Prior knowledge:
Layout: H1 16-30, H2 32-35, H3 37-44, H4 53-58, E1 69-74, E2 77-83, H5 97-112, H6 115-118, H7 127-133, H8 136-159, H9 162-185, H10 192-218, H11 225-252, H12 260-307
Helix pairs in contact: 5-7, 8-9, 8-10, 9-10, 9-12, 10-11, 10-12, 11-12
Amino acid sequence: MEHLNGSWGALGTNYFIRDFVDFQKAMVEEEEAEGGEEEKSIVKRGGVDVNNLPMFLEWPEYLFWKGFVQYHSESNKTVLDRFFITFAIHGNNLQSWPARGDALREWRKVVDKYSSEFGLSVFSDDGIYVDLIENMPTDAWQSAVATLACMAFICFVFMYDVPTVIVATSIIASIMTGILGILSLTGTDLDPIVMSALIISIGFSVDIPAHISYHYHTSSSENGIRERLHQTLSSVGFPALQASVSTSLCVLSLKFTSIYMSNAFVKTMITCMILCVFHALVLLPSLFAIFHRLFSLCCVKTSPIETK
């Protein structure tokens, strides 16, 4: 473990056996006459006498090792139950969650070689989050697909208009794809924090396009496409801008801190707000106009056949 990349070596390792061996050697040297030949032979072979462990743990300079060791006495003998060792690694790359995951997997790879013999296991404070990183892509696309499916179903229930539902769902899918693409281009890794912010942003991406789609659907179809879009944007356009600006201002307050969690959340939410406004107020009306034009052309072409 001390030879892995980024390790501090023995300087960053807390391993009680090293102090225990030094303690036992010093005890044998000072009380050579009382130590016994058996104990001397153990020390000479580089081993330790576990029966000296209680004395070692009561020694003033070694009292802190009590938190690392568990043992019990059985038939006037000391039995070592379990102990733990701490290792330290360093590196600027450890600011990235995927790098921490790689380091943890290296530890586990080494420990797995001896786990059956010694019953070893690895614990890391970040382990619960690092283990989630491998599932992040799957969780991300499942959340996105579930959101799209629910949005399409709800739009269909309230609007009952297939073209409108298709356009609205496509816009939301485009916003999700844009958020992921921009985060990737800016060098943001898909870690648990970004995943949480991404799920929240997916919920926000549904809001404004849904309002635009619903107001367009409920507008009078007797009016032309220009009038319908004018009514829709005049009713929802400015409130949508107000909502996006107010949300962005609230989120930007987190930028005053240098915490990674806050910066990741701000980047994700601001990206979401910009894409939502652009898609809902520019692309969505354009698509409605294009679909209306195509539908009108199809009706014009089929009308002569129907009259015959």
